[in-house]
């Protein structure tokens, strides 16, 4: 097989793409990876903003496929920083000799299926490659989004998006800084940037729930303890709801006395463990009153931390239930607003109007700035896929098929798009989980399916429309039983004007989802049509 005709093309060299390459290579397939960046890492390549850190603990946010890798790598902190995660991913790429099949600095423009040949043609600006399979490992939060306000091109200073942070860093010393956006990226970076800048104005459209990460160096004892029980811990991760094992809740938040509840939240708060707060009670994510006990706990903390009551109130989330937008872990976020040179502008009171030559203008006034940071997030889940012109059988485009919201079977495959797989695709539990746990499960499942085809002399596979419809409906029903659809979040697509409002995650739990995927495979890939051109 030539360089331009391979068994599989993988799009993206982040955590998913690298593991997919490793698995396909071991299964005896030829594969090429295309990656826009000039290095591996995906999310962790691009998001180099100050304070960027994962909100899943280091020893849990790592690959499990290689026990040797697990034992060799030494994490240094409870929550890993972006540079440490990137070094880890680079180490994995080198250790398993993955780079030789990756073409860097190359964006995939289109993928077109030829039904007669049973192959995809994948086109980049420099070449066209044919492949039997295409595997999208394009990430859920990789297509960044700028705020929808005019004037960015007029501003005479630099504007940086947290999701495209310059590799050389940004020196804010002595600068007047304006930050737009208070999601995870804003909340992690604002305390550090505000320490450096002469003054900082934070433009907040929606306050978010955040709690202290309680980050600290890992002790040698806890590292060796985890390394001694990794197999059992990994099993617990795979069977858990969010890919993070926590004690199973047995009670409603409303059936325990208030003091006991506060004690429980306090313990989770001190652990700096989001899943422990979310999972403390059975109904936190399904019952508004139960949820509000957690929300109120966080709002009380904000009031205790922030000196100025009016600022504390502005920082207090009231428009959506706790956990229905991804809550954040921070280091000193709320206390940052006690500094005399840090100001908060509530965009619900005074909306953004434009970016001017000199700064940011709201309906009330202009704020002069030397530097602007957009911490405005991503066109999540579908953005990176829709950025590629993907055409399946009969030339149907994925963008058109998904015009009213994404439709997939298991979040892994799409009817009408044979031999195409979407790792952590829409309607899988991925974004509601420890991403690496989901990635490994998806990659393993897809690789097993490809091996199954080959072992049976088959060459194509595609979900039926009926199976896809059923899955879409199941995802909706499970989602509707929770509070998630009540929030305007990126899970719902509501952060992107014009995007259909659909809950794009499966909230049935990582463990139960895995069981469903495994049962489908055991049942001869029920819901898929497996075939051969011959
Ligand atoms: P998020 O969580 O989507 O946060 C983006 C923030 O930017 C959020 O506060 C938005 O307000 C705000 N935003 C977006 N567009 C605008 C405009 N036009 N005007 C004003 N403010 C705006 O992205 P992050 O990068 O912080 O985090 C993404 C995920 O990465 C996170 O959930 C973790 O899973 C890791 P809004 O809330 O939409 O009103």
Protein traits:
534 residues, FAD/NAD(P)-binding domain, 2 domains, five-stranded parallel beta sheet, 17 helices, globular, binds ligand NA7
Outline of the structure:
The protein is α/β, with parallel strands linked by helices. 33% of the residues lie in helices and 16% in strands.
The tally of helices reads: 17
Query: Which distinct ligands sit in these coordinates?
Result: ligand NA7
Q: Give the structural class.
A: alpha/beta
Shape: globular
Main β sheet profile:
8 strands, mixed
Cofactor: FAD
Keywords: FAD, Flavoprotein, Monooxygenase, NADP, Oxidoreductase
Family: Belongs to the FAD-binding monooxygenase family.
InterPro entries: FAD-binding_Monooxygenases, FAD/NAD-bd_sf
């Amino acid at each position: 097989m030539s360089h331009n005709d391979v068994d599989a093309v993988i799009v993206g060299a982040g955590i998913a793409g690298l593991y997919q390459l490793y698995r396909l290579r071991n299964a005896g397939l030829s594969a090429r990876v295309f990656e826009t960046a000039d290095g591996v890492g995906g999310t962790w390549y691009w998001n180099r903003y100050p304070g960027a850190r994962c909100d899943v603990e280091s020893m849990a946010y790592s690959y499990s496929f290689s026990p040797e890798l697990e034992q060799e790598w030494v994490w240094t902190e409870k929550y890993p920083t972006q540079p440490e995660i990137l070094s880890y991913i680079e180490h994995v790429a080198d250790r398993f000799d993955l780079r030789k099949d990756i073409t860097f600095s190359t964006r995939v423009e289109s993928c077109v299926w030829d039904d007669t040949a049973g192959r995809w043609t994948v086109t980049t600006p420099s070449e066209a490659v044919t492949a039997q399979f295409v595997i999208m490992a394009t990430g859920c939060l990789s297509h960044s989004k700028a705020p929808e306000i005019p004037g960015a091109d007029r501003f005479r200073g630099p504007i940086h998006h947290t999701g495209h942070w310059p590799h050389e860093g940004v020196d804010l010393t002595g600068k007047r800084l304006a930050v737009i956006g208070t999601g995870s990226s804003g909340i992690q970076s604002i305390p550090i940037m505000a320490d450096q800048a002469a003054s900082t104005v934070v433009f907040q459209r929606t306050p978010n729930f955040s709690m202290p990460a309680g980050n600290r160096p890992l002790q040698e004892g806890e590292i060796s303890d985890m390394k001694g029980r990794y197999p059992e811990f990994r099993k617990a991760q795979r069977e858990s709801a969010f890919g993070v094992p926590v004690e199973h809740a047995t009670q409603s938040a409303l059936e325990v006395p208030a003091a006991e509840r506060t004690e429980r939240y306090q313990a989770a708060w001190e652990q700096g463990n989001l899943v422990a707060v979310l999972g403390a009670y059975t109904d936190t994510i399904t019952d508004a009153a139960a949820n509000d006990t957690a929300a109120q706990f966080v709002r009380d903390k904000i009031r205790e931390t922030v000196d100025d009551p009016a600022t504390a109130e502005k920082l207090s989330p009231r428009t959506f239930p706790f956990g229905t937008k991804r809550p954040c872990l921070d280091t000193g976020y709320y206390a940052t607003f006690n500094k005399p040179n840090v100001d908060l502008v509530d965009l619900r009171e005074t909306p953004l109007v434009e970016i001017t030559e000199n700064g940011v203008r709201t309906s009330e006034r202009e704020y002069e700035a030397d530097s602007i940071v957009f911490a405005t997030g991503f066109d999540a889940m579908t953005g990176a896929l829709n950025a590629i012109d993907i055409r399946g059988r009969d030339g149907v485009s994925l963008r058109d098929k998904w015009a009213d919201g994404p439709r997939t079977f298991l979040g892994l495959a799409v009817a009408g798009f044979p031999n195409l797989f979407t790792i952590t695709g829409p309607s899988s539990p991925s974004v509601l989980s420890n991403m690496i746990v989901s990635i490994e499960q998806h990659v393993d499942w897809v690789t097993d399916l490809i091996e199954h085809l080959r072992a049976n002399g088959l060459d194509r596979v595609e979900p039926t429309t009926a199976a896809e419809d059923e899955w879409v409906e199941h995802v909706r029903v499970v989602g509707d039983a929770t509070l998630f659809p009540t929030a305007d979040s990126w899970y719902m697509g509501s952060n992107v004007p014009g995007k259909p409002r659909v809950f794009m995650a499966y909230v049935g739990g990582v463990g139960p989802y895995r069981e469903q995927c495994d049962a489908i495979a055991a049942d001869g890939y029920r819901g898929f049509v497996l075939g051969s051109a011959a």
